[in-house]
Write a structure and sequence with these properties.
The structure is a homodimer.
Chain A: E1 2-6, H1 16-29, E2 31-33, H2 52-65, E3 68-72, H3 78-90, E4 94-99, H4 107-110, E5 118-121, H5 124-138
Parallel strand pairs in A: 1-2, 1-3, 3-4, 4-5
């Protein structure tokens, strides 16, 4: 499957090691779009070689192509919130994973009926177990 | 006008004093929805007496009623990202204000053509000047 992985870039890069491990896991069996989210060279200022419009247009194109979106929502992010709403708008499946011991998920996301696949985890191995079970269902 | 003021709640409350000053200014001439964003008693865990669905449904109802959305985007927030996408989807006017010296605005927002009213500020008085000029135009 084509998996669009959404996570914070300019919202903060504190969780990059978690993103990297999740992307590495997903890449074993799927094509992962936006892999640059797990790229150490991408810092909180984002991709410096592209304009904002070029980044946005590329991401929207990827979103149109994806089969399922996996959003790691622990680190607050305007871009991920925007992408979640876009997914809802076009009816693409979304799996949300959120680390309970770090932050509380936005009520605008947790309270939206469309997002019925929200999973909370503490350890990375739990997150991988969730993705394994859920992506298995989608196939 | 009915102004929907969007800013971070669960994404972090570091900017609450700024939200309060902006809401106080807006309230002089407008009806401000989601005034609780400037309420000291609302901490990062959000509104504890309401379910997420109740918060989401109330906010969406307000969004349907508003004339213009003012989003303060400095503190990253999934909820604000979601609300910006919702505004774009239903075609409501949006004014985005962002403190340049604190964070960089998401490419997904800055790169979206619909959001053509993005203003950067450093001091609260500059933000108020921007709102005065822009809301004057909307009336």
């Amino acid at each position: 499957m084509k998996v669009y992985f959404a996570a914070s870039i300019r919202g903060g890069r504190a969780d990059i090691s978690i993103y990297k491990q999740l992307i590495a896991y997903l890449s074993n069996n799927h094509e992962v779009l936006t892999e640059h989210i797990g790229d150490d060279s991408i810092i909180a200022s984002g991709e410096v070689e592209r304009t904002d419009k070029a980044i946005r247009d590329r991401d929207i194109q990827w979103i149109e192509e994806w089969d399922v979106m996996v959003a790691e929502t622990t680190n607050p992010s305007l871009g991920v919130g925007y992408e979640l709403a876009y997914a809802e708008h076009i009816g693409k499946p979304v799996i949300i994973i959120h680390r309970t011991n770090q932050s509380q998920l936005s009520a605008m996301i947790a309270g939206t009926d469309y997002f019925d696949s929200i999973y909370y985890y503490e350890e990375i191995k739990d997150a991988i177990g969730i993705l394994e079970a859920q992506l298995g269902k989608e196939e």
